[in-house]
Design a protein that fits this description.
single chain; about 120 residues; elongated; alpha+beta; three-stranded mixed β-sheet
Length: about 120
Amino acid sequence: MARSLKKGPFVDGHLREKVEGLNTRNEKKVVKTWSRRSTIVPDMIGHTIAVHNGKKFIPVSVTEQTIGHKLGEFSPTRTFKGHAVKAALERAAGAAPAGGAAPSTGGGAAPAAPKA
């Protein structure tokens, strides 16, 4: 569900203060934050924000294309290691007997059987 337009985008207060402080001093430091729920606003353009994913901080450089997105979208919390079924099939295909399989016909479907 979208946030009301009259409220404006949500940015945690502590993060907004840090970014405004950097803007007033014209500094470009990496800002560490745990606030994955904060929306990227135009004041953050050009800064690098390190977003915590539960294990480490992932640096997110803010550009014009990222405005309106949440910081958490750019630091995934889960690591995908592949599908277990696909890995098992690949292992089984590699261990198949070499002489028992029929030679391949070169692609395509098998010819249709004649109708009786």
